[in-house]
Structures are given as C-alpha cells and as structure tokens.
Amino acid sequence: MHEQRLDPRPAKAHLAIRLVLAAFAMGTAAPLISSCGAGSSGGGPGVGGSDSPGTAGTSGAGTAGTSGAAGTLGNAGDVGTAGTSGGGTGGTSTQGSAGTTGTAGTTGAAGRGGTTGTAGTTGTAGTTGAAGRGGTTGTAGTTGTAGTTGAAGRGGTTGTAGTTGAAGRGGTTGTAGTTGTAGTTGTTCTVPIGPRCPGAQAQNPNPFGCTFAWGRQNPSGTGSLSSYNYLQMVANWVESGIRSDGTYSSCGGCSWLSSRVSGSNLIPVYYAYMIGYYGHMNGLPDQNTNPNGANLATGGAALIKANRQKIIDMYKKYATDTYAVWKTKPLVWFLEGDFIQYTETSQGSPLTMAELGQLAADITCAIKSNMPNAVVAINHTTWNANEETNSFWCEMRRADYDLVWTTGVGSNGNYIESAGAAGYYNAATATYPYIHTLTGKTIAVDTSYGASAMSDSWSNQTAAVINNHISNGVIGVNISSNPPSNYQTLIQNLGTLSTTCR
C-alpha cells in the first residue's frame, strides 16, 4: 500500500510503485556513383558527354553538359576514366576536344575525349549536378512541417514531433522538431470534462478554509483530538477491515470520526485505500512485501476488472456509513495512493488510462452522491514520466474531483521530489506549479508513510518559501509520520501566511 511504497528511480521513467512507498529530417545522401569514360586504343572519334541533359535536384544525378561533344577526329586514348570529380583523362588525339561546357556532377560521366579534351578543369562537379535527394527544390519544412501534424497530445519534455511529423528528405532548411514542440506547456487533451455527480455539492478546492493547513496522522490513543486544534487536518487510513468478498464488519473510519474528531476543530482526511486493502485480502500484497510473487503491481488491474462493480459498491457503502456520522463539515477522501500503477506494463492485464479515468469518475460519484459534503482528491504519483503525467491527468478530467494530493518536499524550490532538478527525467512535469496549472486544481501534500516516510521539510521553512508554494496551488501539508516535537512552535513562528483562497 501507499504507506509501504518502494521508490526505485532510474535515470529514466520506470515501472515502480512508491507504496509504503527527432525524428530527424532524413537528409538521405545520394550514393556517390563513379562514372567511367573509357577511350578505345584504336584512336576512334572522341565521344563527348552523354546526350541527356545534366539534371539536378530530384534525382540527384549530375550528367554531363549537352554541349560537350568531342571532336570528330579525336582518337581517344587507352582509357580515359572519369574520376569522382568527372575528369576524363584524354587519349592521343590532338584535335578532339571534349566539351568545355559539359560539366559533370559528382556522379556524372565525363565524355571520352582526346588529350585536350580534359574534363574536370571546367567540368566542375556540383554546380548543376547537385547530389543528394532533395536539393534546392527538396526543401523540408513547408510540406513536412513538424508540430502542426506532429504535436504530441501529451508530449514529453521536449515534445519532439519527429515520428509523425517527419520533415521532407534532404534540404538544409528542412529541420524537424525545433518549432513543433508539444506537451509540457501546451498539452492537447481531448477528453471532455465529466458530468457533476448527482446530489453532490459544488466542488470545494479549499476544504480547510483559506488558511494554509497543517496536519498530521491520527495520533495514538483514544479520546478527543481537541488538543491538536492548532492544526487544521488530521488523517486516518480506511478500511483495513475489508474482507475478501468486499464487505466489512464495521466502519472503522466512522468510529474514529465519532470518538476522536467530532470534539475538535479539525477537518478529517481519509486515506481511502479500499482497492489496496481488498487486494491484500485476495492474495495481492503490496509490491515491496512480495516483490518476486503476486502483488498489487502485477495483479491489481486484473482484480479490478473482475470486481469493478464490487469496488464501486464498497466506496458507496462506506460513504453512506460515514455520512451518517459526519454530515456537516467537509471530509477529504485521498483516493488510492499510486492509482496510476494499475495501468503499468508490470500488470498482467493493465487498465488503459481511459479505463482508469472512468473508474476514478465512478468511485468519485459513489462517494459524493452518498456523502454530499465529501471532498475527493486524486493522487499524483511523482515517479511518473512526463508523458504519463499528461496522459493520466487528461483522463482524470472524467471525474468530478476537487483537488490533487501528492507526496513531496517543501525544501526543493518548485520540485515535488527532493531529487528534482533541471535535467531530471521528469523535471518538466514533477513540479507543484505544473500540476496546479495542468489540472486547474489545488494541491494537498503529505510526507509519506512507512519505509518511504520523509522527515518534515515544511514547517522548518521560511514564510516566503511557504507563500511561494501557496502561489503554486499548495493549500496544506500533512506531516504524516513523526511530526517534530516542536511542530506547534514552528507553525506559530511562521506568522500569518498568504491566503490559499485565490
């Protein structure tokens, strides 16, 4: 589960779960074909350049000039071979001049001429017989433009449009990709925004109010959490009591709300890991607990396909039960950590991104239609490649969700991960401002759990740093595991921060 995620990050995008965790313009060079002009030993008439005109451009073969006729009395020498420069060495005849204007291309055959009929001195190669397919008329870019037809809908960091927008062959101006950028700043998502969930309230991008929210995991013990009223949120995982058939004996989250949260000013957060817990009960542990056998990263998608309605019904019932004890204040549902894992190729039968998007939409409505005050957050997995991030959030448009939740640091500029840097494999998309702009949603952050838990890198920052995160859409952070002992003091020392209602 999310609290036991692995975090193996290679230099490029990879298949891993963080749970408890050009084409170039093809300037195809025409082959250089040496043409041999041979003279006979008997001294016959010197034959000039070939009769056909020396064309250039599309065929790239530079034939000798039309006026390169040899003299009628010029007996050729033994062998007047034309080299790569089109030069024919002459024979013994003194009168048979070879065409002075019969220019030879790099592949053009020079006329067989006499001693004075030397080709090459005036028969310069290349002036009219330009080699290479394309030439001056084979300009690329006008017909093989990259970008207009080669724009990648969810393009990568450089958004090269090569494979579908290949430029015309040849032509020095026919470069592809330089103007045909796509993706990182202008993705072309064609998925329409899904309908509102029946009975749901208006979307709530600020469930914690307009003050930057500080939170923590549910502390141990019993009784009211009113002593934590210096915070704005408190989190709990649900539902570990799920059985293999998708039912549960009691609503643990409901009891938590009634016994601990109700007497406080805190906004509760559910880490809703229903699919994860359901998988555990059906022989699919988290990947890091059984990396070499069946686990959620290999069989989770097949489990979803076989039990899709059952999963939706689990969420429906849990929302109904929760609403019975929590009717007024918002309750934020952090849905399924590392949700994107069910589309990965490690799965035996992966979901498509579109199937995952529709599943998110159906789960969201199962919650919001049965708990009108619910606020639904969809997880952004920070190990996504740039293309995955764009595709994932494009498909999530199907869902009537309120905000994004992710795991990240507060001490690395705008980068979500501590490893984030210019040149990192997903540096273009793994930033708070990018996700905020891409989705149009606010962002709640946590510091993860279990083996991947991070120390607090938020409350020990300056107000200017936190205000920058607020300007990039971040509305709060849950210091998930082991908040610092002076957590309250650190928060108070920050003073008044910018409003999150923007």
Summarize the entry for a quick read:
The chain has 502 residues and is of the alpha/beta class. It has helices at 252-261, 274-280, 296-306, 308-325, 353-368, 386-395, 432-439, 463-471, 487-493; strands at 213-217, 233-238, 267-272, 331-335, 374-380, 403-407, 442-446, 474-479.
Descriptive account of the structure:
- There is one protein chain.
- With 502 residues, the protein is of the alpha/beta class.
- 19% of the residues lie in helices and 9% in strands.
- The chain has nine helices and eight strands.
- An eight-stranded parallel β-barrel has the order 1-2-3-4-5-6-7-8, surrounded by five helices.
- The longest helix is centred in the middle third of the chain and has 18 residues.
Strand content: 5-15%
Question: How large, in whole angstroms, is the Cα Rg?
Answer: 36 Å
Task: For the record, give the distance between the C-alpha atoms at the N and C termini, rounded to a whole number.
Answer: 34 Å
Order of helices and strands: EEHEHHHEHEHEHEHEH
Topology:
Blueprint: E1 213-217, E2 233-238, H1 252-261, E3 267-272, H2 274-280, H3 296-306, H4 308-325, E4 331-335, H5 353-368, E5 374-380, H6 386-395, E6 403-407, H7 432-439, E7 442-446, H8 463-471, E8 474-479, H9 487-493
Parallel strand pairs: 1-2, 1-8, 2-3, 3-4, 4-5, 5-6, 6-7, 7-8
Keywords:
9% strand, globular, alpha/beta, disordered N terminus, 502 residues
